[in-house]
């Protein structure tokens, strides 16, 4: 996701933390919110010192296949990135500095896990090579899902999070079931559907928004509630 998607994810998650997780996170993040730190992993991208984390933002494997059955990238991917973050943050013997760094990375990566074009296929770099128009401006399928769609609402991240956070306890529990392996395959199935939603050169506008609004909102909501679940378990 772009900035708004990550902040929505962090803001929703913040509302569903246990007291214990909330205190631990507040201490590690010097009082900053999950929404605030959610974009950190993108802010360090341009710095060559952090280039090894680039591959952590996404995972590509053949459509129709499950992550666990796929050939893994030697550079790591979204799943190995999340696993590394969880291991380091959980370990009380990790340096505080590392726990802070990997916590911020984790908040971001759980967001990306729910952007369908980040659980994608390699041939077109998760839709980055599929050029389309968005309300007459040049874009691509990846970018449509990172930011064009979400920004078309003209809502702030707090407004969007409030809109998306209207779920019953029962619905929330249901959404929080499963593992990151289930969640990545779920995103990957949605991704396959999105490859049918637009072809190179398509002129996307209102119609696309109507048709895909539900998927966008569902993925943002899932990302937020599941981030809370991952953090609650981690600080248990
Ligand atoms: N580069 C290669 N594949 C990508 C993906 N799925 N998302 C973002 N960047 C990528
Ligand atoms: Zn992206
Ligand atoms: Zn990212």
UniProtKB/TrEMBL annotation:
The biological processes this protein is annotated with in GO are: DNA catabolic process
**SUPFAM superfamilies attached to this UniProt entry:** Phospholipase C/P1 nuclease
GO molecular function of the protein, one example? endonuclease activity
- Source organism of the structure: Flagellimonas flava
Gene3D superfamilies on file: P1 Nuclease (1.10.575.10)
The record's listing under Pfam families reads: S1-P1_nuclease
Protein name (database record): S1/P1 Nuclease
Signal sequence extent: none
Alphabetic keyword roster: Disulfide bond, Endonuclease, Glycoprotein, Hydrolase, Metal-binding, Nuclease
């Amino acid at each position: 996701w772009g900035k708004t998607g990550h902040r929505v994810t962090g803001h929703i998650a913040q509302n569903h933390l246990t007291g214990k997780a909330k205190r631990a996170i507040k201490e590690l993040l010097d009082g900053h919110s999950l929404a605030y730190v959610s974009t950190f992993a993108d802010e360090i991208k341009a710095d060559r010192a952090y280039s090894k984390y680039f591959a952590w933002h996404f995972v590509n494997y053949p459509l129709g296949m499950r992550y666990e059955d796929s050939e893994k990238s030697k550079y790591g991917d979204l799943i190995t990135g999340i696993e590394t973050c969880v291991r380091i943050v959980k370990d009380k013997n990790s340096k505080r500095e590392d726990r802070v760094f990997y916590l911020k990375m984790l908040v971001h990566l759980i967001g990306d896990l729910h952007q369908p074009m980040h659980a994608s296929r390699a041939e077109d770099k998760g839709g980055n090579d599929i050029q389309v128009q968005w309300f007459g401006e040049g874009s691509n399928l990846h970018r449509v899902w990172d930011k064009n769609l979400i920004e078309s609402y003209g809502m702030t991240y707090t407004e969007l999070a409030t809109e998306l956070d209207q779920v019953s306890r029962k619905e929330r529990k249901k959404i929080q079931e499963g593992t990151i392996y289930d969640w990545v395959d779920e995103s990957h199935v949605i991704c396959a559907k999105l490859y049918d939603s637009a072809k190179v050169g398509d002129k996307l506008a209102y119609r696309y928004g109507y048709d895909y609004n539900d998927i966008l909102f569902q993925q943002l909501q899932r990302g937020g509630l599941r981030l809370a679940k991952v953090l609650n378990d981690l600080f248990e």
